[in-house]
Amino acid sequence: MNNNVLPYPYRVIKPLGHGGIGEIYLAYHENLQKQVVVKKVKDHCRDIVDSRIEVDILKNLHHQYLPQVYDFLQIGDQIYTVIDYISGHDLEYYCKQNIRFSEEQLLIWLQQLLEVLEYLHTRKPMILHCDIKPANIMITEEGNICLIDFNISIDGESNKDLIGLSNQFASPEQVEKADRILAGRDDSKVVLDGRTDLYSAGAVFYFLMTGVYPNARRENFVELKYLNEVYSDALANIVSKAMHPDIHRRFKSAGEMLKALQHLEAWSTKQIQRRKMIVAAGMTAALAGILGIAGGIYHHGRVQYRKYVDTVETFVEKEDGWEYLSHAENETQDLYEEGVKILNEEQYQKYFEKDPISQAELLYATGNCALYLEQYEEAAQLLEDVVEIDGENADLYRDLALAYAGENDVEEAEWNLRMAKQLGATEADTVLIQAEISHRNGEKEEAYEMAKSALQKASADMMAHAVSTFLLTAEACGHTEESIDYLIRHAADLSDSTRIYWLRRAAQEALKIGQTTIAGECLEQVIDSKIVLVEDLYNLDAVYEKEGSWDKSRNLLKQIQKEYPGEYKAYIRLAYVSYRYNNDRRPADRSYDEVFACYDRATKLMEEKGIRPESEPDMVQLEAIITQLKELGWEEKE
User: Does residue 27 sit in helix, strand or coil?
Assistant: First the structure.
């Protein structure tokens, strides 16, 4: 190219490079009065600049660690980009000089790279660089990075087939996509996203830390921990996670990887092993972790936490294990809301910044509460945050698979199931999750048989999910009665807490289909045990009501009032039962005093709890009954 080829306002000063990287010229921008770089767009990238949309996307990028893109020039059948001239050398230059950088310097550059990637990946549409390598990271005279070479940049909404590969720094999914394209095979299922750039960023710093080139196909690849002799294992662990061959095992975003850098001490191998032990211990250990969080905050005078600790301690003492969560909905909801509150309150943030492990414990506990409450989206979000801290735990991926299955996100559920299997999840757990996935896919009979198989071997912490899946799949293929009979017949062979749980669930299903006799028999066994919930008493009352056993119903509701003084629902139901009972009597024998008295008591309790009467359908119905009684001349006693 000579000066006559470039249109005004550009004037060529000298060539800067030739060969495989294309033609690059140093030029002068007459209007801006500054030097710029004019670079020939590679032939396979011309299509991207044929669209003015892509041109505008790149021209509108403004970030301190990016060169400004000024223009795209079409000269004959060639296209050129015009960008800022960045004085200095690229990282490849320093690597060829065998220069080793301090950890402090690498941390600064990695942080800067992640900041610019977060900027690119959060554009609308998303911008992916797809060719991050030492030669494309300039070090300015001020010592900062500048990410260059957008000839192969793509956005997240279009141009998904455009791939640029460097032999050492490309991600495995880029290699797979390129192989498919070259072979003429369908590449649409190989999706590139921001994690592709994170892999390449990790590969660059792998090289800077070891002097060893990584391999795009990971052939004869040596893990960083075996090569690193200079830098902290915390930095090595972060880089290794970014380079994980499975895209789902990397950081979810540049922002999350940046956050990990900001808490470098939490990524030492010692701290990671501690986190694995915490999560592997299950939900009971997680609760202990919550108590530890609150206790630590309290003793340092940071926040008042006593109320939450008392709530948790009371909950833990109610019953062994976490089966309780699946049916004690009110308590579980309270615990979930308290966990969310602590996670979101500003006063706790500084504590969590210093101790992310405690935050992980709380996230795991709160996420499992959401899972038991069938708030699947919230559960998935909370548990995904734990994965960022501990990505090597089978139970964690198992729980995530359940959450995504509940959301009907089969693809994510299947991926997390594979991860759980790889990390050693039990056969019963994996069969259970597969049953959930098959159910979502409409494979009804197969799902039911798998759920039955999983139910027979389910571990204690998965028992509630196993029973729920079993009943769900049974209902889907018309086997509800069979499933109820199965739970009742096999309950006798189980431990007390599990036996009562199976009978409780069998009773609930029997009530749904009107089998009140079976429901009553199951509930009476439950109530004879020491593991009784107020819900069990209400369900038995429902049986008595359907049978018209008014005396039994009234006695049971009075028992609830005595044992649970704050249960306003017991007063509402007793008012309704008393009303029905008196309606069946001769007019001369009727007395609605109990109806009025229970209504007044329920109103007072609801007011004390801040519950609006119109929010409770049963209370609305009772108010209508009270109005009708007054219109008929029945008056409440003073």
Answer: strand
C-alpha pair distances (Å), 135 with each of 62, 170, 173: 21, 13, 21
What is the rounded distance in angstroms from the CA atom of residue 524 to the CA atom of residue 521?
5
**Residues 251, 323 contacting (CB under 8 angstroms):** no
Q: What is the pLDDT of residues 378-393, one digit of tens each?
A: 999 999 888 877 667 8
Give the DSSP H/E element, type plus range, for residue 30.
none
- CA-nearest of 360, 382, 369 to 338 is 369
Angular region, 594: left φ>0, alpha ψ -120 to 50, beta rest: alpha
Q: What phi, psi does 466 have (nearest 5°)?
A: -65, -45
Q: Which two tokens stand for residue 20?
A: 């495989």
pTM: 0.53
Under DSSP, the state recorded for 7 is: P
pLDDT, tens digit (0-9, with 9 covering 90-100), for 154-206: 444 443 444 445 678 999 988 888 888 888 888 877 888 899 999 999 999 99
- The answer to whether the beta carbons of residues 165 and 173 sit under 8 Å apart is no
| Host H or E run for residue 445 | helix 444-457
How far CA 525 is from CA of 210, 496, 555, in Å, comes to 67, 11, 18
At 231 the pLDDT is 92
Provide DSSP, 476-505.
Answer: HTT-HHHHHHHHHHHHTTS-HHHHHHHHHH
Q: Determine how many CB atoms are found less than 10 A away from the CB of residue 576.
A: 20
Which SS3 state, helix, strand or coil, does residue 583 take? helix
Closest by CA to 398, choosing from 352, 434, 373, 374, is: 434
Q: Pull the structure tokens for residue 170.
A: 């490309």
Residue with tokens 């196993």: 466
The CA dihedral of 238, 241, 243, 246, to the nearest 10 degrees, is: -170
Label the pairing between strands 127-128 and 154-155: antiparallel
For 41, the 3-state DSSP assignment is coil
The secondary structure of residue 627, as a DSSP letter, is H
Cβ-contact 203, 214 below 8 angstroms: yes
From the list 136, 159, 135, 162, the residue with the least C-alpha distance to 147 is 136
Centre a 10 Å sphere on the Cβ of residue 349 and count the other Cβ atoms it contains: 12
β-pair type (127-128, 69-75): unpaired
Helix, coil or strand: residue 70: strand
Is residue 560 a contact partner of residue 538, using CB atoms and an 8 Å limit? yes
**Angle subtended at Cα 14 by Cα 11 and Cα 15, rounded to the nearest 5 degrees:** 115
Neighbours of 518 (CB within 10 A): 20
The count of residues in the chain is: 638
Question: What DSSP letter does each residue of 112-131 carry, written as one string?
Answer: HHHHHHHHHHTSSS-EE---
Nearest to 168 by CA among 211, 200, 216, 212: 216
Neighbours of 628 (CB within 10 A): 11
Question: In this structure, what is the dihedral angle of CA atoms 95, 101, 103, 109, given to the nearest 10 degrees?
Answer: -60
Give me the pLDDT at residue 252, please.
85
DSSP code of residue 26:
E
What gap in Å lies between CA 574 and CA 582, rounded to an integer?
A: 12
pLDDT under 70: residue ranges of the chain:
1-5, 17-22, 41-57, 150-166, 269-331, 348, 351, 355, 358, 390-391, 636-638
- Does residue 248 contact residue 173 with C-beta atoms inside 8 Å? no
